[in-house]
Every structure is written in C-alpha cells, then in structure tokens.
Amino acid sequence: PDSAVIAERVGRPVAAVLCLQAPLELFHACGVHPYKIFGGSQTAPRLSGPSLPAVMCPMLRSALGLLLLDSAEGGAEAQGAGYAGWVIPTTCDWVVKFPEMMRACGRPIERPVHMMELPHLKDRPGSQERWLEEVYALRDFLASLGGRKPDRRQLLASMRVYQEAWGAFSELTELKREGRLPALWFSVITNAFFFDSVERWIEHVRAVAAKFRSAEPAGKGVFLAGSPIFFPNLKILHLLEDAGLNPVIDDLCSAERLFPGAVFYDDPTEYGLLKAMAQRYHQGCLCPTFADNDRRVNNIVSPANRGLFGGVVFQVLKGCHPFDLESLSLEQRLKDEGLKYIKLETDYTAEDSQNLLTRLEAYRSTLD
Q1: Residue-wise pLDDT tens digits, 329-340
Q2: What is the Cα–Cα distance from 278 to 52, expressed in whole angstroms?
Q3: N or C: which end of the chain has fewer CB within 10 A?
Q4: CA atoms of 309 and 367, how far apart (whole Å)
C-alpha cells in the first residue's frame, strides 16, 4: 500500500527500513512505526528497469518500482506524509546503493536517511562495541522522527510488547513445524507484520493460530533456505505445495527470521537494555553477508531440527549474490551430513514454473 496509508493506519510516523538488523523494539519506544521496504511484484520492476543494472536483486528492483508508484500517486508531499525517514543497515551491496539507485530512477529520497554501518564479523568484541554505538545513533535518529527520546521505562514497555509478539509468532512457528500451518499462510502473515501496528498484528496472529490447531498435517517436510520470499511473489511456495512438499522449517528473513528472538537482559539500566537489543539483533542474525556464519549451517543440521524434515530446498533469486555464493559451500556441507539437497535458481517470472515443478517432483521422490 501507499506509505501515506500506512502512516494513517498506525497513527505514528513511519520509517522505511531495508533490513531487519535495526531493533524493532527501539522504533516502538521512540513512537515510530518500522515499514520494511520489499517487493514481490512481477510488474513493478518494469518501471525501474531502464535506470538500473541488467543483473541485480529482483526484490529490490521490484521495491524501487513500487516506490516510484508510491511517489507518483501523491507527489513529494504525500510521500513525506508516509515515510518520515529511512533506516538503511549496510548489509549487501545492493542495499548500500539503494539511495543512489533511487536517484538514478529520478526519485531521490527526500526524507532524512540514517545509515547503520553493520560490522560483518559478529564474534569480535570490537565489532560488538561498534554495533552498540550504531544502536545508540539509531535511537537518536528515531527520537528525532517520533518526537521522543525513550527512557528506561519506555524501553522496557516496548520490549514487553515485542515479547508478546514473539510469543504469538512462536505459536505460528510451532504449527508450521507440525505441518498444520502451510508455509504459504505463514509467509503472508509475516509479510503483513509491517502493514499495521504490532499490537493489532498480535491479536490477528492469535486468531489465525486458533483456526489451524485442528488442521491435518500435509506434505513431505523440508527445510526451506535461501533468498527472502515476499508477497505477491509466492511462486516457490505454491510449487512446493504442488509437488507434495511442506516447508515445515525455514531460515528466511522474510519468514521465521522476522524476529531474531526475544530480547533478554541482565542489566535493567538504559545502557543494559540497549546493549541487550544490540547483541540480540547482531548475534542472532543469520544473514549470509556476515563473514563468520557457521551457525547458519549448524542451524540446519542441528539434531533438534533434523527430525522435522527429509531434505533441504535452497532457492536463490538471480542477482542475489550473497545467497548464491553461500549455496556452493552449503551444498557440500549438507551432503556430507547425508541430507538431500536441491538448489532452485529463479526470478520474478512465471516462465520457469513448469521446469521448477518437474525438478521438485523428482526431488520429492528421492525423499521417500
């Protein structure tokens, strides 16, 4: 939807966010609504295509096209009413270049932009200290948008809200683990998180969970990994269902990695709370842009997860270089662990659907 519609719905200033390393609790405490910029439209890329490289992340190409529609519908004034500012963690190169690509498309970002320099080595103490400094700087930026600098009590209150959101989200995740909640539904629900207030999202998530508790499990369980999947480009999820495969577990940042987990703290001071947020979002992230990322593979081969699935489906969008590179080392490691593995390379088109379905059906037969 248009950014101005989101701002009116939530009754708060809206900050556009490109990646989820920025602590969501901090947005809430500052009175700002985070809206993750994403795109799954197959038609929107045509609007931005002429100004962009031929081979680039199709998700961001789609997002750029949708932003052009957002701006064109109401002009700069309406856009300003929607996005009060932008938060851009420096994850992959495409994300870093996003403001530049907006200028190339003829629609420069007119709201304040805050870049968060993401340390790509998680285990170094120096990296953790730098990231904490980035979180402090983010707090000050969000306070300028929301009109309030949160104190310790407001931070705790927002952490409790997101603790509740994590609890509701865990209910959904467990239903997916059991095969009762289709991955297609799960993906739509997680994508919907940014379209409304977190409080209303929690309420509706619990209502959905109640409906699926009595559903029958279906399909052969698989682990789904790779590039994020955003509405309405749910092609891979549809094809998996058609092939009799059920992604009961995933590590997609658009699905199960929506939250890095609940934030726990030992020190209830303002410093202690911000440090706990920084550590959770930095240490808990499994993005392939990090250099020390063995935990991503360990998460797949973990004995706690192995009994849930028979194989791993790795889907990568053309132009999504971090995931494409990761698939090479991941494949050998998983095969060494005795896991069945298939890699699907695709784009925001429907032309390859039949070929992908044929491959998935053949892969399904190897899991019996």
Answers
A1: 888 888 888 889
A2: 34
A3: C
A4: 10
* Helix (H) or strand (E) run with residue 85 in it: strand 83-89
d(CA 98, CA 312): 31
How many Cβ atoms from other residues are within 10 Å of residue 119's Cβ? 17
3-state SS, residue 291: coil
What is the rounded distance in angstroms from the CA atom of residue 27 to the CA atom of residue 135?
A: 11
Name the stretches of the chain with pLDDT < 70.
1, 71-82, 293, 303-304
3-state SS, residue 173: helix
Q: How does pLDDT run across 228-239, given as a tens digit for each residue? A: 999 889 999 999
Please choose, from the candidates 262, 252, 310, 306, the residue with its C-alpha nearest in 3D space to the C-alpha of residue 284: 262
| Residue appearing with tokens 């390393």 | 21
Residue type, 268: P
* Residue partners of 253: CB distance under 8 A and separation at least 6: 19, 20, 228, 287
Supply the DSSP string of 199-251, one letter for each residue.
HHHHHHHHHHHHHHTTPPP-SEEEEEEES---TT--HHHHHHHHTTEEEEEE-
pTM: 0.91
For residue 224, give both structure tokens: 């789904």
Contact 226, 296 (CB under 8 A): no
